[in-house]
Specification:
The complex is a heterotrimer of chains A (485), B (251) and C (205). Chain A is an alpha/beta fold and 485 residues long. Chain A folds into two domains: 293 residues, Rossmann fold (3-Layer(aba) Sandwich); 62 residues, no CATH class. Chain A has 23 helices and ten strands. Helix content of chain B is 54%, strand content 10%. Classes of the chains: A alpha/beta (485), B alpha/beta (251), C alpha/beta (205). Chains A and C meet through helix 2, helix 3, helix 4, strand 1 and helix 8 of A and helix 1, helix 5, strand 9 and strand 10 of C. Strand 9 of chain A pairs antiparallel with strand 9 of chain C.
Chain lengths: 485, 251, 205
């Protein structure tokens, strides 16, 4: 079964390792540039995209700021529709609830719709400990699960794998998990998809229990929504007798009509399609149609911590489209594993610290710094999460969490800089040493800077000194060097 | 109109020629800028590293230096962005209402150079001459935080003698990112290498941008690669004239 | 220890102390000008075809022939309330298991709404469409959409649909982009989607 992210190194070290993998860099550059172009094309078709983003952000923001009412309402409507609602404070509680339901039906396996939240809580591993096999049925998740790998992208968890690698995984691993891959398996995507269809078919047809997440949960109507492409979602949501959906409490939207901006924003932002192939909606139990026992697990697991963060709470608007990953220049170079979480990329760099809190472990504390603050993520976010601003705020929280102890060299440098920059006289004095500093850095490198980059030549005098000497260039000040570069 | 030059700490210490170019350029356009001697830095290095408390005294100095000016012009998209978008955060952190008010008053008056030229002075042809093959890299903060749009390109297109060539993947970050360049040096360099490759592909002699911080990083990679491509700040191209072109040959 | 529900709701309350809900209700933009049905249906047909579904337009009289021509070899199932006859079809009575449905080659259903802008067909699984499993497991789905069921975009569809009903929104045959983000049609859902667009029922009957 797939591994976990526990014990990952901090981002810079993990990134360093990933950067040496030229195959990975190639796979990522190819995949992200493809999806970027697709997204740009279908977004350009919508003349009022900006208004749509505002509407999407407002839908989520309204529900979040009124979350208690919305959750209680959701529970009422779900219950009225025949669903059983469970509440889970954390991963362990949620996993225990799902395992309990599976055991109550003597199930030794469950089929799963691709779901970020069940990865976040490590459901597959928890079920395995209870002797229950959890089969991932999304193609990319299947690739990750069979390859004993970790997901590296929200939408396309196996984005780091190319077709030849996938063929090798299918050939060597499918047999142990069920129906083996055909002998004549090629690396054509259509052939690989067909092999996945054959492999998973028997699992869908016999499954007693399905497990899903939800993209949206409508409080007013008790409707859950799952957005997908392959039909594996429909299989898991329709064919089993029992359905358990694990839903983060931030997935709630207030009203039925709130689905409108979301269903226009998500597919265009995510897969770069006008609409994804399949969207399933169900409001509890439909007599004679689909699962006749429906459970919904409402999960906190750090979401209320994020909600309490006034700057960071906007991250809970996230609809997991992964547009921010696809445009992120850092993600494109390092891939998703370097972020050490099921939530990689720019959104992961804020969501993980918000869910877990900072100041406890180096890995989480390194994530807000895993960005150049270039702002490409904010530009594409369908719900207008200002990721750069949240990153900067999270950095401040990381620094604040470490105040009081023995100051790190960086903290001392910043205090020194604050002192120097607090008065221009002090700065002016330090500037006269710039040349010496540059010569020192060049001589005693390689430092983090000079490992692969040269330093500029230091000028003969600072701008400030030039201005004073030449009266802002109105006189030659004794020597003519205002052309000096 | 009283106009102050916010030269920025990096230009003050490392690239005085950029500040000098702004002075020459604006003087040619009839604007006498003042240089408030009390200025130091916008505080962005602290803010973007998470040291908000340390940024407070720097912000006070900034506000004191530039209060009372109708316009503050700076040859840096990043520092203009810091003043317009981050100073309110730092002021909020300080709990000092007077500082918050001063920031609210000052921030809208801060202009990146191309914004000042196009929006405030209403010019795109600044009478420059620059006979070189040049490619333009739009820096992230000018592009996305400030939204300068195509103002720099319009200014460059009006320069006589220039041969502007498109940069592939222009809107991709160069990998500098301030503190990122050091904290995540490997990723930063990987991004810089890709940017440098695209620049070399254009066959340009010069890569121009509105931020010397990004150009330090890009230039550092280009120089290490012995590419022969030079980095030049936008202000220096716009300040160039036929006379200065002669002088440049000798530099 | 308080139960999870009580504790989570208390945490939510505490997290939001001092935060007011923005009273401004942002309304999602909608197409400014209403479009003639004819153009909508043209757009719908074009957009469905973009997903590499088979799209045909035909008169009510031709419909049964077109269905017969579209059917693959093998058994066909129809929902109990289908408004036309498909010769030799099994009429679903809700008893066939998933494994039994897997032996059936095709299904013929009607639909609730067609969305022009996105090329989407929405089923709400009333008797003319049947329970969800029958339009999922067979490998060919022949779906009849009437011209008067086509609406402009997602908001118009949402306004028409009944949230109490289960729904399946279908935009082309099943597909995946999981391998190098290269779109491939045909995974678990029906690999062939055949859409027949016909004039409104009241005009032709």
């Amino acid at each position: 079964m797939s591994g976990t992210f526990v014990g990952m190194p901090a981002f810079p070290e993990a990134a360093r390792e990933a950067l040496t993998d030229s195959q990975l860099r190639h796979n990522l550059a190819h995949a992200t540039s493809t999806i970027r172009a697709k997204r740009a094309k279908v977004v350009a078709e919508v003349p009022d995209w900006e208004e749509l983003r505002l509407a999407g952000a407002a839908v989520k923001e309204r529900a979040l700021l009124d979350l208690e009412t919305q959750l209680v309402r959701l529970e009422e409507t779900l219950t009225a529709n025949g669903a059983t609602v469970h509440w889970a404070r954390d991963a362990a509680e949620a996993n225990a609830i799902v395992a309990g339901i599976a055991k109550a039906h003597a199930a030794t396996e469950v089929v799963k719709v691709k779901s970020m939240v069940t990865q976040e809580i490590g459901l597959n591993e928890a079920l395995a400990e209870e002797g229950i096999a959890a089969w991932e049925t999304d193609l990319a998740e299947l690739i990750v699960q069979l390859g004993d790998d970790l997901p590296s992208h929200i939408l396309v968890p196996a984005i780091h794998r190319n077709r030849a690698e996938i063929r090798d995984i299918f050939r060597s691993k499918m047999g142990a998990a069920g129906r083996p891959a055909p002998d004549d398996l090629t690396d054509e995507p259509a052939v690989l998809a067909a092999a996945a269809r054959e492999h998973l078919r028997e699992k869908f047809l016999r499954a007693k229990v399905g497990v899903s997440g939800a993209n949206f949960a409508v409080a007013e109507t008790g409707t859950l929504v799952v957005v997908e492409s392959e039909g594996n979602g429909r299989m898991c949501l329709t064919l089993p007798e029992v359905l358990v959906s694990v839903v983060g409490i931030e997935k709630v939207v207030s009203r039925w009509e709130d689905l409108d901006p979301m269903l226009r924003l998500l597919p265009r932002s995510s897969t770069g399609e006008r609409m994804n192939p399949y969207t399933s909606m169900w409001s509890g139990i439909a007599p004679g149609d689909g699962p006749q026992e429906v459970h919904v697990v409402l999960l906190d697991n750090g979401r209320t911590r994020a909600l309490a963060d006034e700057v960071g709470r906007q991250a809970l608007r996230c609809i997991r489209c992964s547009a921010c990953l696809n445009v992120c220049p850092v993600y494109e170079r390092t891939g998703g594993h370097a972020y050490g979480s099921v939530y990689p990329g720019p959104i992961g760099a804020i969501l993980n610290p918000l869910l877990k809190g900072v100041g406890h472990d180096e890995q989480t504390d390194s994530l807000p710094y895993a960005s150049t603050l270039c702002g490409a993520c904010f530009e594409v976010c369908p719900v207008r999460i200002d990721i750069p601003s949240v990153l900067v705020d999270q950095r401040a929280q990381v620094v604040d969490a470490h105040r009081g102890g023995v100051p790190k060299p960086e903290a001392m440098a910043m205090k020194g800089a604050a002192y120097v920059l607090g008065r221009s006289r002090r700065l002016s004095a330090v500037e006269r040493l710039t040349g010496i500093g540059m010569r020192f850095a060049r001589r005693f490198g390689p430092t983090a800077w000079t490992g692969a980059r040269d330093l500029p030549d230091a000028p003969g005098e600072s701008f400030r000194d030039w201005w004073l000497r030449t009266d802002g260039g109105r006189t030659d000040g004794g020597r003519n060097d205002d052309q000096k570069g | 109109m009283r106009v102050a030059l916010m030269v920025t700490c990096i230009n003050d210490a490392l690239y005085p020629s950029t500040g000098q170019a702004v002075v020459r350029l604006l003087r040619r356009l009839g604007v006498e800028v003042e240089f408030p001697q009390a200025q130091t830095c916008c505080g962005q290095p602290m803010v973007n590293t998470g040291y908000l408390d340390e940024a407070v005294p720097v912000l006070r100095t900034f506000v004191d230096a530039f209060a009372g000016y109708d316009a503050v012009v700076t040859p840096s998209g990043s520092c203009a962005g810091s003043a317009r978008h981050q100073h309110s955060i730092v002021a909020g952190r300080s709990g000092d209402e007077a500082l918050q008010e001063a920031v609210a008053k000052l921030a809208p008056n801060v202009y990146e150079l191309s914004e000042f030229l196009v929006d405030v002075l209403g010019v795109t042809d600044v009478g420059a001459y620059y006979p070189h093959r040049v490619t333009y890299h739009p820096t992230c903060h000018s592009l996305r935080m400030l939204g300068v749009g195509n103002r720099p390109q319009r200014l460059l297109e009006a320069v006589r003698g220039i041969r502007l060539v498109d940069l592939p993947g222009a809107d991709q970050c160069c990998g500098f990112g301030g503190t990122f360049a050091v904290k995540n040096a490997d990723t930063s360099i990987a991004m810089g290498a890709d940017k440098a490759r695209h620049i070399r592909e254009t066959g340009a002699e010069i890569v121009v941008a509105g931020d010397n911080s990004c150009l330090t990083h890009i230039g550092g990679v280009l120089s290490r690669q012995r590419s022969g491509v030079r980095t030049v700040h936008l202000a220096e191209i716009l300040a160039s004239t036929e006379d200065s072109a002669v002088a440049e040959v000798t530099r | 220890m308080p139960d999870a529900r009580t504790e989570i709701l208390a945490r939510v309350r505490e997290a939001l102390v001092g935060s007011a809900i923005d009273p401004v209700q942002t309304v999602a933009p909608r197409a400014a000008t209403p479009v003639a049905t004819r153009e909508l249906v043209d757009l719908f047909a074009e957009r469905v075809a973009d997903y590499r579904a088979v799209v045909e337009r035909c008169s009510a009289e031709d419909l049964e022939d077109r269905i017969a021509a579209a059917l693959p070899a093998g058994q066909v199932i129809v929902p109990p309330g289908l408004s036309l006859r498909v010769p030799d079809a099994i009429v679903d009575d809700g008893t066939l298991t998933a494994a039994e449905l897997d032996l059936i080659a095709a299904v013929v259903t009607e639909a609730r709404v067609g969305i022009a802008e996105t090329g989407t067909i929405v089923l709400d699984h009333t008797p003319d469409q049947g329970r969800r499993a029958i339009s999922l497991v067979p490998d060919t789905h022949i779906c009849i959409v009437r011209e008067d069921q086509v609406v402009a975009d997602v908001p118009e569809a949402i306004a028409l649909l009944d949230p109490a009903r289960p729904q399946t929104w279908i935009s082309g045959p099943s597909a995946t982009s999981d391998i190098e983000l290269d779109r491939v049609e045909g995974v678990h859902g029906p690999r062939t989607l055949h859409v027949l667009i016909t004039p409104p029922r009241d005009v032709t009957s």
